[in-house]
Amino acid sequence: YDAWAYFVSAEKRLNNRHSIGFVGFGAPSRTGRPGVAVQEAYDLTGNNFYNPNWGFQNGEVRNSRVNHYHTPHLILSHYFTPNEATEITTSVNYSFGRGGSTALNWYDSHVSFDDWNFTLAGDPRPDYYRWLPSFHVNDPEMFNWLTDLWQNDPAFRQINWDWMYNANRNNMFAAQNADGIEGNTVIGMRSKYIVEERRTDRNALILNSNIVHRFSPTHVVSGGVDVSMAQTHQFKVMSDLLGGDWWLDIDQFAERDFADPSMAQNDLDNPNRLIREGDRFGYDFTGNINEYSAFAQSEWILPKWDFFVSGKISQTTFWRTGHMRNGRFPNNSLGDSEKQNFFNFGLKGGSTYKITGRHYVTANAAYMTRAPFFRDAYISSRVRDHVIGNLQSEKIMSADLNYLIRAPRFKSRLSVFFTDFTDQTWSRSFYHDELRTFVNYIMTGVDTRHMGVELGIDVDISPTVSGYVVAGTGDYFYNSRPNVTVARDNDFQVIAEDRTVYLKNYKIGGMTHTAGSVGLRYNSPRFWFIGVNANYFDDVYIDINPDRRTADAVQNLITSDPQWSQLLDQEKMDPGYTFDIFAGKSWRIRYQYFINLNVSVNNIFDVKDFSIGGFEQLRYDANMPERFPAKYFYLYGRTYFINLAFRF
Description:
Helix content is about 10%, strand content about 55%.
């Protein structure tokens, strides 16, 4: 983890009515990504922090999955006060920069163990299912051998960089008609394994102007317009050939599936292109998203009641611009696609009833529509511009009711909430074992419901001691039976259409449905403090694979078959708890300099066996559900944070 940050701000007051402000900030970062693995890998290594993304190279740890992001923001604002009752703020925000994550890629590779007369697939990821002992459960000799390697050979259970370098340096290959030149034969070491960076470079120009006008002490009206024009450039860059001379820019699945060699070309206008480090390859396109919106709000402040109403309208237009002509989709990959347009609106209202000066009841409700996300709109935006069928705006309906107490030594808030999301789109890509190729899995008509209750209490026990309680529990679940379309990634074939997914009442994974925290803090008059808090987490569910909840997945099973439950039941994690401690002190020097020191220790009892989430793999075998088991995330053990700041 290597991160930096910078910030600059300046304002010039032109006169009593006008001023101009500028803000610029950014945070360049490089982060080695943690891994997620199946429980078998954690058990074999005896370590719930096992990370399959790295291995040793020349005695140093090298991570294959590194994020590199830097997106500066520049904001220029004009503040205008034409009179005491009116304020107008206009801002222009320009953001630009790069984003990306590296990953391994490989071509037609296998690994042979001569002593065992056995060949394993050449997927270099150490936790690939064929490298795990469980895959060879019917071969005791192989099972025991792999178990021993996992438990006792660190080089085996991590990425073997030396192995990939050796494979590339021993792969002499003659590339015919290289770089699209007829008769051009280039002989060299063709890389079987590479590190590629999947880039997502974004730039956006946002203009907004807001006005607030106070008609009277009890009536305030505000409104504004927003214009956003964003482009996200997505492509791959060759990061490391791992000892090879070049990589051939073809799709190995298309090369295998189609007799026409042109269909394997990722860049049909530059066939048989030899890719070297720093070159773009594979796919190259820009997602264009323009949004125009306007809103208005009216607010009334009365002795016993406050209430407001607001409305918003928006127009969203997006389209794909391809920069490569793909061999599988020569007429649907290059240039601008058809524009997709969505008109949306939102209505919101709320009220506050002041029981006394310290007791309040508030209620809010909203209904709005939202354009589908660009990433979910296309079947496979990397290589073609085909939009999924029945694409429509998402609908959101929400309401909450709150009771608040604001006393000098006691503050609390009790809330109940309800939100419905309807007509969502869910799109993913994964490797299909039966077809032996990648497929695109698109669900439409996905409805979810979030509802629950939350409580927060903050109390001053004494002038120096304070305490708090925060707790919440909710029920977040799927509330529909969506339709799914399954399409091959490499051609126009639709494998399944209008297939029903029985998702209704399954829990939404990736979040804690029940959580609570209790804490105490001591504030010394001598400018130091210390505190402790206890945290509890429960109702944690893993994300489910929707394709396992279809009639096709269970068509060959009966309800008494154990595989029926293995396919359909959703796994719930055990509850967990942590304790944290924090402290800080400040010093003032010569009445103009300040030093602040803050220290915190999280999870002080070093809890490491609490699974904070996970997901079912999209790749699965209905006849052998255990072949592709769920992957889990575990809570880190004890962690520390120290911050020292000097202000002047």
